[in-house]
Amino acid sequence: MIARWNGSSWSPLGSGLNGTATSLAAYDDGGGPALYAGGIFTQAGGSPASRIARWDGASWSALGSGLDGSVDALAVHDDASGPALYAGGSFTSAGGSPANRIARWDGTTWSALGSGMNLGVLALASHNDGDGTALVAGGSFTSAGGVAALYIARWDGTSWAPLGSGMSHYVRALAVLDGPGASRPSLIAGGDFTSAFDSYDSYVARWACAPPATIHDKTRPR
User: Which of 2, 29, 5, 31 is nearest to 17 (CA)?
Assistant: First the structure.
């Protein structure tokens, strides 16, 4: 369920995973750079690893007791306390403690991000929108931290907040684009939506993030 391409051929990563991997990220937890895989598997390298595992180049290891549901997104983000690995998905428990659809791994332990989301997280990105670097989550949720947030929300290290009026449907992908001439990187969202931030954007949209935040790159005629 996972393989490595060296430029000319594919090779396995040990004995691999016993289920689908849906997300990957590179992260250094203090023990050196490693590959982290998230998904719906329960074993990595033949040993228990609940939905998330670490590959150090030679062997797989679990991240504590893992998650109790699928991991659909991984991202590395620094909330000013140091870089950490963030996981989003359908789970409601991380490391045996409550964590609703999103959690933080600091290399040793799992922690929740407030009260989390009411439904799944499908995408994550670390983004500086002019008010500091924040973790942005997209997915099928309509509430983040108990606050209305339609399919996209921002975590500032303390609390969740919506991004404008949100989207009309699921956000499935997030990316940060630092284009020529831009005053700061833009956040790009892709998904099932046909309206983004009260505009007529279909399936992909850009959060311009220079206050006041605006949306560009309209893809559907009015």
Answer: 2
pLDDT of residue 209: 56
At which of 86, 112, 138 does a domain end? 112
Structure tokens at 210: 């220079």
pTM, two decimals, is: 0.90
C-alpha–C-alpha distance, residues 121 and 20, integer Å: 17
For the chain, the domain total comes to 2
Looking at the fold, whether 143 and 213 belong to one and the same domain comes out as yes
Domain of 212? 122-222
DSSP 185: P
Q: What is the β-pairing status of strands 160-162 and 102-105?
A: unpaired
For residues 105 and 128, give the distance between their C-alpha atoms in angstroms, rounded to a whole number.
21
Q: What is the CA radius of gyration of the chain?
A: 18
**Average pLDDT for residues 21-42, to the nearest whole number?**
96
* Type of residue found at 178: D
pLDDT tens, position by position, 102-117: 999 999 999 999 999 9
